[in-house]
Design a protein that fits this description.
The structure holds two protein chains of two kinds. Chain A is an alpha/beta fold. Chain A contains five helices and seven strands, in the order αβββαβαβαββα. In chain A, a hairpin with a 6-residue loop joins strand 1 and strand 2. Chain A is elongated, with a radius of gyration of 21 Å. Chain B is mainly α. Helix content of chain B is 68%, strand content 0%. The chains are: A alpha/beta, B mainly alpha. At the A-B interface, loops of A face helix 3 and helix 4 of B.
Amino acid sequence: MKRFLLTLPLLVILMLTLVLGKGLVLDPRKVDSPLVGKPSPAFTGPRLDTGDPTSRDDLLGEVTLLNVWASWCVACRQEHPLLNQLARSGEVRVVGLNYKDEQRDGLRWLQQFGDPYVWSVADRDGRIGIDYGVYGVPETFVLDAAGVIRAKHIGPITPDYLRDELLPLVRALKQESRG
Amino acid sequence: MRRTTLHAVVLTLTFLLASVTAGAQDTDIDAERMRDLEKELRCLVCQNQSLADSAAPLAQDLRSELKRLLREGKSDDEIRAWMVERYGDFVLYRPPFKPMTWALWLGPFVLLGIGAGVIVHLTRRRGDTTAPAATVDPKRLQDALRQTEKT
């Protein structure tokens, strides 16, 4: 009994180290989105280029990536070549959500860095972003053909994430909608 | 001279009027409820600040959404649910009590219990070592004391 009591502090410290050590490894910016598994929130808004109305209905029918971007977003430049590449491959449709941006700046940005989006909806006041729980641009949502959010990625897409998670998921979802 | 005074008066009145009308817009919402809600909701951008403290653009947007919801007559619970729907339990500084958070809510009490147990255990054992003193026969003690008094 005495021996047990003597080792008790050591055990407590070990447990604390494990718990706090785990905390060091976790990324506090990665908050699990409660939207995963739920239908994507409804929205209406003008297309960034033409101003034509768009809505959530335009996202339905096929597997779609909804990528939140802005011309003022530096990290967006990091992932942009990957998105361009993805759009060229024709693997999946990419739709843009131009978050809290000016039309002129957004269009110029696309001209400068390339436009992977079939279209982008302009969310000037950020209201669509709020309904999608956006808090760290860039963010990417994976929607299945029925418009249900199947995954959300916060921060720039990395080659590893694209290869190991995003593309396998997209392929599985395409299989699902076909079968 | 008189002119500047007039200017000053007009200017003051303008500002006064402006502040009064600006305030009037917000009288239909409960400022106290707004403050309380802001304080217990987390700003997602600067994560250790509440919405009330944060100057991040998103926090400003969310504050104006809060105002809108209050104006629409939503209850505090409805507003919290609205936030959780979008950002998850993480936005709440007071997380809900559910299996995921049992350790969080009950952990301190469990630790307190363990600590109390250890202290009780240790003091009991210390009590044992002084136990012989308690076996003194009170009657003999009384006798002894009486003896000393007599002498």
